[in-house]
């Protein structure tokens, strides 16, 4: 049976204003061993006071890695998804992602997430934006290869939710093993795609998965007119995307996927995340996976 990691994105605790260490404590209490935070470059008061569940690149990555080990938790990836499709993709996005890659290598994170913008870039034609992103990813992957960190492209925006453009993006650096896909089950759905067909097309590129359900009300109001969901306000399994997630898990299992499933939901300070975790563990077992636990945990 293929083994799979189960974790969550710490944005589940954004609205409850918890710290990253509180997210680690929740993971330990619920026997979760993988975590995915956003990263910021620099410092801000809300982070310093412990009201922000993500991490700063100013924090020492080796010391943070040791602290996480005491909770039995490691990174599945860190989220450095500054949109790379706009004019500032090269000047702001690229150095931010490159710094995140070097930090990730010391922090023990095997992946760094990236993405495009939610909307058509202002002042750029589609081909211009794609060419700009190709140059950006060339610079990013040059650093990723040196540090042996996988860079994932998350399905989240104007380009990445369109399958043909996403295929072009995943081929920006030839067959480099360091450029892979972060499939987001909710974003593919809300953009109007069939998530199962979408996943099937890119099955051999998927390295990390965001498990995100969608409420009926949100689907009714914006599906086909949006490209991404900031945060899902329904537990995994309780929305209209549950059956798609179930089928995707079956396809991943049949293909021998051994990455990490990272739950993305509002969390409600823990209860909604706990409901998502309970549902996902049942579905993972039904799909033929066993849950992987790091050796140190």
UniProtKB/TrEMBL annotation:
SUPFAM superfamilies: Xylose isomerase-like (SSF51658). Pfam families: AP_endonuc_2. Residues 55-282 form the Xylose isomerase-like TIM barrel domain. It comes from the Bacteria. The keyword Nuclease does not apply. Keywords: Carbohydrate metabolism, Isomerase. InterPro entries: IolE/XylAMocC-like (IPR050312), Xyl_isomerase-like_sf (IPR036237), Xyl_isomerase-like_TIM-brl (IPR013022). One of its GO terms (molecular function) is isomerase activity. This is Sugar phosphate isomerase/epimerase. It comes from Oerskovia rustica. The lineage of its organism: Bacteria, Bacillati, Actinomycetota, Actinomycetes, Micrococcales.
């Amino acid at each position: 049976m293929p083994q799979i990691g189960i974790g969550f994105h710490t944005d589940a605790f954004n609205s409850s204003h918890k710290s990253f260490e509180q997210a680690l404590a929740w993971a330990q209490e619920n026997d979760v061993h993988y975590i995915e935070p956003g990263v910021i470059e620099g410092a801000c008061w809300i982070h310093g006071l412990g009201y922000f569940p993500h991490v700063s690149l100013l924090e020492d990555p080796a010391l943070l890695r040791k602290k996480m080990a005491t909770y039995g938790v490691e990174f599945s990836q860190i989220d450095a998804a500054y949109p790379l499709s706009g004019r500032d993709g090269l000047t702001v996005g690229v150095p931010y992602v490159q710094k995140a890659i070097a930090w990730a290598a010391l922090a023990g994170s095997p992946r760094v997430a990236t993405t495009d913008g939610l909307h058509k870039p202002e002042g750029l034609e589609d081909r211009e934006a794609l060419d700009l992103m190709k140059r950006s990813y060339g610079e990013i992957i040059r650093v990723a290869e040196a540090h042996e960190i996988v860079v994932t492209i998350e399905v989240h925006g104007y380009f990445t939710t369109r399958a043909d453009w996403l295929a072009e993006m995943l081929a920006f650096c030839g067959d480099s093993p360091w450029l892979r896909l972060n499939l987001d089950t909710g974003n593919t759905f809300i953009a109007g795609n069939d998530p199962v067909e979408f996943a099937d097309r890119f099955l051999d590129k998927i390295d990390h998965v965001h498990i995100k359900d969608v409420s009926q009300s949100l689907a009714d109001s914006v599906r086909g007119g949006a490209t991404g969901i900031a945060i899902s306000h329904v537990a995994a399994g309780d929305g209209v995307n549950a059956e798609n997630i179930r089928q995707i898990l079956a396809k991943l299992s049949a293909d021998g996927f051994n990455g990490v499933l990272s739950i993305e939901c509002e969390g409600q300070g823990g209860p909604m995340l706990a409901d998502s975790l309970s549902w996902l563990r049942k579905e993972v077992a039904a799909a033929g996976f066993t849950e992987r636990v790091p050796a140190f945990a």
